[in-house]
## 1
Amino acid sequence: MGTGEKGREIMRFGFICILVASSGLCHGQNQPASTTGSSLPSEDLKMRVQRLEAEVSELKQMLKQLQAASPPKDVVVGASDAIVNSDSDPPSQSTTHLASGQENSNLSANDRKSLAFLRDTTINLGLDTYYAYNFNDPVGRVNVLRAYDILSNEISLNQASVIFEHAPDVSNGRRWGARLDLQFGQATDTLQGNPSNEPRPEIYRNIFQAYGTYVVPLGKGINVDVGKWGSALGIEGNYTKDQINYSRSYWFDFLPFYHMGARVGIPLNDRFTLNYWVVNGTNQVEATNGFKDQLFGFTAKPHKTVTWTMNYYLGQEHPDRSVAACGPIPVQPGLCFAEITPAPNGRTHIFDSYVSWQATPKLLFALEGDYFIQRLWANAAPGQSSAPAHTDGGAAYFQYQLTPKLAVGGRAEYMSDRSGLFSGISQALKENTVTFDYKVADGLLMRYEWRRDFSNQPTFLSDVQGVLKKDQTTATLGLVWWWGQKEGSW
């Protein structure tokens, strides 16, 4: 019951008591005499009226005290105290919003902006584990020429990932965004652990991606990213849940994993986008020379079921300095170098193309072709060899969705590593992979994989130290968990 109602009920009760006690003299001096008795003396009547006025004054004072002690209407009480009946005043609007878990109407503009930011930011987590068995029983339990599934006969953590993303939303007036991918586990060392590429790999080792985005309001919107991102050279990517197979191809392991720099995507229409990058180098956050690598390419959708990507990458991957002991002048840790004179200046050219075709809602085909050529010297001086080193080949993929929970995929791959750029020796590498997927639940995937690698040269470890074989066969069980608000591929 509201405070006003309480006061009015008290006053009504007081008046009734006084009127009864006064024998019906509620109208003061205008009250007629009783028909059954004599009239009251005037002095007695005055005294009763005075008592009546005193009672009314006392009741008014009590009402004021009750009003002063009652809480404001917008104070939220506990659930056990929030008893509402048909006779009580309706709760205030702000109390109703808080009780129902809705946004408080009294939030400031800054509070609302913070909530809107959190609604548009996704936090996503992934956990990728596996058990692989190599039938060669290799010394040291190592699977040769693998990118991620590198250990045999061990339960292993491939990678644990955390992704923060605040993507641009042009339709709502926000043209900027950012993304940060943190990664831990075996894959982290594979991605960023080569001192020949990174002067200080330990600084950036757990940061797989970190870039900001701005959509320039020209044409259909020019997308500009600045920072570090996973390379788009090659059809395969970092996150296992988005791949057809559990293991990665030779080409994924050979082509760049990431770049640091700026990239631009210019959509000419809904089916054709031009791409341009300028970066420090391949797998380099900190450059090892003064040359800036570049990529020119496009992504086309000639049909709604077909996506085609073409890339040409021009770089110079030879360092112009080497690590040296620091002198008397203090510098940043790991930044003491000696000049390489003359420094090799040969160029690296990568031609990379891949296409995917969703033939039916259940059947997917994909093809990739690559040509990699590198020279040590651009213009060889007498006595310097400028013969180029070549690596070329490609891969073919398919995936068929048997049921909503079951799928089968395959990969056949060939790499002609004639100059040993990938494997260290001149050889022809091949591999065949078959993968079965079982989707346990949304965000939990089991993968069963059989893979056979073989070469025309002894390459793969055996169970005898120093003895190599021309092939290796592995069976792998992968378990991949992921959760978060980001939809689609990561």
## 2
Amino acid sequence: MDDILDSNRKLLLECAAAFGTPLYVYDANKILAQYKRLTDAFSGVKFRVHYACKANTNLNILRLLKNAGCELDTVSIQEVQLGLHAGFKPENIMYTPNGVNIEEIKEAVQIGVNINIDSISILEQFGNIYGDRFPVCIRINPHVVAGGHSKIQTGHIDSKFGISYQQMRLLNRIIDQYHIKVQGIHMHNGSDIKEIDSFMEAFDVLLKVASEFKDLKYIDFGGGFKVPYKEGDSEVNVEELGAQVSKKFNAFCHEYGRELELWCEPGKFLISECGFLLMKVNVIKHTVSTVFASVDSGLNHMIRPMMYSAYHRIENISNPKGIQRVYSVVGNICETDTFGSDRKINEIREGDILALRNAGAYGYSMSSNYNSRFRPAEVLIRDGKAHLIRKREEMEDLLRNQVEISL
């Protein structure tokens, strides 16, 4: 893990003072560095990166990546519309929904984005409506277990995602019956995958399926690259992954008879490490067994620790040289609401600012108004300057869509 916090510590404290807490802060330079690292790792193939924007849909982050040459992966029609608003062209947007009504897919077709279909039922409905008039991508389930937690594993046999590679006979019958044009084959096995062997096992399945389709333009091997969450933590070696995947892909293209494009769709890899959730300590509470540091945020702002048992490093940026003590950092939500248990952290005092790392991805995008609390503001740091990119919510935001009636 690099020294991104150390290099931003003073500015983070200034952001907390200027914009208040809780506060999301993102480092634009880190996002761009991650994008360059990934594209460099796959420089030996025709490579297109589609940012999985469910990780963070702030328009400024979308535009930052678009201007760097990145394209967009979306999972809802609303994300498609946000992408268009950010300036992405329809042909640079991949739309990969799951379990949506055919009406939403028809809306995406009208917009002109790349359509990725992951169920036999929807594919048959699509064929009935469009026949050979609109090309599609097919999402395959390779039956490979991979990912850091059962809730973020999406490529195993019991997953709701994708069409099983064992259903190829049925898949081909539907494609032939409706003359569906298949331009891409896709998979996504989950998140926090560090084992290159898991990627390669699934990629072998993907290529085997792809060999049955003669008019492909691209093959999309998804994302899910693991990033480090703590000092000494493991991560996927994207340089080695790029070398292995590129070699196998180039050999496939040679056998296929023409050069295809290789696509992928990282989310967390691009923006997780860029982000910090800044929280002010409200109360230091001693019990018979634990010292709690209670902060002005909670699972309503960052649900990953409670939902996925995710580890996020927490540091006291107000007292970086204080003696380390053991704390459990907890939120102010009326639930069991723990950011980290029994953590060694530099001495925490009431009023200190804590920085929760790896908050760029799946923090604000999964936030809520639980307990009727406001969602935080967001700030983007670019070349040492802080820019407010989302205002903190106010009471009017909680009331805006409520309809009061006479009772």
## 3
Amino acid sequence: MSVSLNVKIEDARVRDLFSRIQRSMADLTPAMRVVGETVRTSVIRNFEVGGRPRWKPLSPVTLARRKGGKVLMIRGLAGGLAGSIHARAYRDRAVVGTNKVYAAVHQFGAKKGSFGQITFTVREHLRRTRSGKKVKVREHKRTARLPWGDIPARPFLMVQEEDWEEIREALADYITGGSV
């Protein structure tokens, strides 16, 4: 069942306001630019402070290999995951994301071996024993699970509560004829 209602608006100012709202709603791209940039800035802030809520710290093995540093911020904003965050505005939405293939693993986490296993060749080399003696290791095959250990989820693509007010204001300003 459908019901329709026709309302005739006599006041010219109200008619003008409805007309402006209707025109604004046809293409929200300018407002979506503000929304996208608000969310992008918030996501980058998530990296800078180590997650909101706080991410699980790096494992001792990773810390030793990396010699310190922030979680997911190896190159800071110069590259890597944090530096790849971008926003795009469309007529009806804003999209914030990354082109890094490993982003989903960091966003959602992964269990040891969840991507299967890989077999690779270890070339012949010299290895030092505990006593300090060098021994020759022959070329051989090795199989490893991927990932080699559990990777905890570190959700970085998150809109924070304080961002929603700015998003609402940007949309309301644009729709009612204000500038963005």
## 4
Amino acid sequence: MKPFSKATMMEATRLTRNGQLQEAMALLQGLSSDEASSAAGFGAQHYNDRRSVGGAASVIDITPTAATSKTRTASPSPERDPRSEPKKSSIPQVLRGFLDRVGTQGFEGLGSSPVAPDTGTLPDGARFSARTYANAAGSREYKLYVPSGYDGQAVPLVIMLHGCTQSPDDFAAGTRMNELAEEQTFLVAYPAQSRSANTSKCWNWFNAGDQDRDRGEPSLIAGITRQIIDEFSVEPECVYVAGLSAGGAAAAIMGATYPELFTAVGVHSGLARGAARDMGSAFAAMRKGAAPNSQTSASGGLVPTIVFHGDRDATVHPVNGEHVIEQAKAAAGVQTEIRQGEAPGGIRYTQTVHADEERGTTLEHWVLHGAGHAWSGGSPAGTYTEPKGPDASREMLRFFREQAGATRG
């Protein structure tokens, strides 16, 4: 039997446990995404979006199983009813050797902490350390980058929420946010989703209990933010949150539920708050979008937001980017300007800017033509990046600074 990647092994086991044997077989047999979809009638995970370097497929986000009356939607939680485990005798031969190797109970020994120890060379005086926060909702690890230029002065803080299967180190490498923090002197934190909360390390943006203030994952992310503010000198009007995919959806939730904490939000390839309330509606929203509801910020005001989304995204439908903007501007009248451009790498884009008379630009929507489910302008050192696109990290920081200036004014 050929060796499998860790991501492939984990996903095949999850599919098998959920009774999706055709999908698991397609995955283990190395079928392409199109072939796997034909064999399984929509696999449980998307393999269309691939890493920029080497073309190795891996999972970035949940995608829908076939919508039939007989299909049971799998829970993202590792907790399961033992009675639902497939009997070994019912498992096709192609899966038996695989399950013999890993066991039907999971990947104990294959998993690792969501936060890796410090790796690589840091600038003299800089720190990239692993930390933990806990409250009544649980605990999460995170990594915090403190640039060499920090010497106790008040600086901005950026919270970065990774996508599914990613880690703080991976996300930091792909977005180059630590490099920008060193260049512009700000703190940047990377909360890490735990595998015990979601087997694919997705933020649970689609759970009803993880979309409200002072509950679930929003309370944990807000708690991490406040913990850093309490320990370091942070400019109160310069605290921001951004994320990719599931992390982008979580960032939209954070901006809406904690408007007094976060001055502005960056959503890359994500969805609006309230786009889903359970796994079934999450699948539908990712596949075709979901009209935004009336859930704006907790204060009822406009949430300054910048959105990036590829128009060839096969994991989260591009219309979701429009919905994020529509929800963010629901409480205010704005004027709109449309700009066209092309990044040095060749990706063309349409930038729609929304502004009001008092605050100036408050919303930006970047549609990346020909781009998929990947961080625009990112580094190939990280997963799910599109190096040829405009620099989303730098543009987000520029937008964030503009909002801080408007707040002060």
